[in-house]
């Protein structure tokens, strides 16, 4: 059986650093599109929890568009948390990042209650148990009527973009437990935890934004 590298990691790209903040090339491309989808879907004064915040650029973009919300970023990775926390010192509503491993039982008890749980580009670059932990935790964390927002590439059977199939192969070569997830599998997982897929939004570079809603 293949040896599996430790679960911690996880930047697939070279990130630049300035003033304590990290900058990822992918975030320069997708922070605006993600902000434009997510910001209008958050309720007034929304409490947002983010899993796998990375550099914190998505949090910054949405908080700048929605100064009424509070956003708690989290990550496994020390450098990511330091970067998001550096942004928190400059952006209203953005809190210092906390350490959360979404694969651990009970992670959701730390942040308390949320109106939205956000997770971008994590579930394909981590074992499936992370997606399972995310959905399980969301069932307790997210208030009735609240949402889970996922962003990233997904497999959609014959309709899957060739670039996402190639990405799936390269992820599995890096770690056999990683891989682009099937939209059906992810939807089924969240359905088993009381969330319905409300919106599937096509994003640049064959990514999707998915909005799952917990019924009132
Ligand atoms: C590819 S990066 C994405 C970062 C950012 N969300 C973005 O879209 O640019 C994946 C992030 O997930 C985090 N991560 C990996 N496994 C995790 C886990 N089990 N729980 C929480 N975060 C995790 C990594 O530390 C990393 O920052």
Automatic annotation (TrEMBL):
Classification via InterPro entries: DUF938, SAM-dependent_MTases_sf
Domain of life (superkingdom): Bacteria
Any one Pfam family match given in the protein's UniProt record, by short name: DUF938
Region: Disordered, residue numbers: 1-27
Gene3D superfamilies tied to this protein: Vaccinia Virus protein VP39
Annotated TM spans: none
PANTHER family reported in the protein's UniProt record: UPF0585 PROTEIN CG18661
Name used for this protein in its record: DUF938 domain-containing protein
